[in-house]
Every structure is written in structure tokens, then in C-alpha cells.
Amino acid sequence: MKARIGDRLHVHGTVVGQHDRVGEIIEIRGDGGGPPYVVRFEDGHQTLVYPGPDAVVESREAAGHPVR
What we know:
mainly beta
């Protein structure tokens, strides 16, 4: 998994009733765009994330957003 600052991390809910979480990657601490990532979620919460198999990186360019 590789990302750039500004990409979105989409973590799919894995339990019935658990919602997906989507956040913006604001810092990359791994080598070459790899995890861990500091992510700001839609509710404003920021945390260090080591994404698992339930997460995907969505490129800002693919979503039609300009890269900062």
C-alpha cells in the first residue's frame, strides 16, 4: 500500500452495524509512501493508522481533486 499526502484512506466496516470511516492522509511516516499514516477523519479526529486488509487508499487525482 502506497499513498501521498492528500489521498484518502477508506477503512471499511467489518462488523454488522459498523460504518466505514474515511479520512485524509496528512502525514506519511513509512518509507516510499508506505504506512503508517497520520489520518484526519471526517469527524476531525487525527490518529496514526497502520492500515489492515479492510482499508484502501483512494488517490485524490482519481477522485477529481487537485493535488496540493
